[in-house]
């Protein structure tokens, strides 16, 4: 059992979440600046001003760290999108989708290091990361499909013609945002919002077979 660092050291249940948050923030910066391959448990620990031993109290290795960071970022994105949609009247299905799109892009723009990890660096982090990425994209597509189905039942909006449609929206949105982060095109992530809006509307119009 370790000795507390001073009489006023925070209790374990407070200290551990704070440590984890600092490590994840440091990891996001390291992955964004050095890439997944260039970052290490040592560089992450150093950036967080913690020891490698503390890093290994939270994560088994660098892979576990990026997976935890990916999960945390995806959860934050989903919460931001849900909050944005909840702020729009339930009867305006199109505006709810537009609000979700802008919340997605806005959250990425506000946290560029996390965005870089979520959309770019995760791809090079190995098979487990690739599977987790696929699962998260399908989960986002499921949320979009559920929102669309509920609105369509009320006659507020058209229905996606296949389960691949919402996944196409999510995949295209992620790729467009990833390209913007890597190349700076267009200049602002939010410039992509009208493009995603048109993609959704085109799929809901039911063109083609």
Provide a compact summary of the structure.
The protein is an all-alpha fold and 209 residues long.
Explain the overall architecture.
- This protein has a domain at 63-204: Tetracycline Repressor, domain 2 (Orthogonal Bundle).
- It starts with 11 loop residues before the first helix and ends in a 5-residue tail after the last helix.
- The protein has 9 helices and no strands.
- Helix 4 (62-86) packs antiparallel against helix 5.
- Residues 1-6 have low confidence and may be disordered.
- The protein has helices at 12-38, 41-47, 52-58, 62-86, 93-110, 112-119, 127-153, 164-183, 193-204.
- With 209 residues, the chain is an all-alpha fold.
CATH class group of the domain at 63-204: Mainly Alpha
Helical content stands at over 70%
Count up the helices.
9
Distance between the termini: 65 Å
CATH homologous superfamily placement of the domain at 63-204:
Tetracycline Repressor, domain 2
- Radius of gyration equals 20 Å
Q: In terms of per-residue confidence, which ranges show pLDDT below 50 for 5 or more consecutive residues?
A: 1-6
Q: How is the biggest beta sheet arranged? A: none
- The CATH topology annotation of the domain at 63-204 reads as Tetracycline Repressor, domain 2
Strand coverage percent:
under 5%
Mean pLDDT comes to: 91
Short descriptors:
mainly alpha, 209 residues, Tetracycline Repressor, domain 2, 72% helix
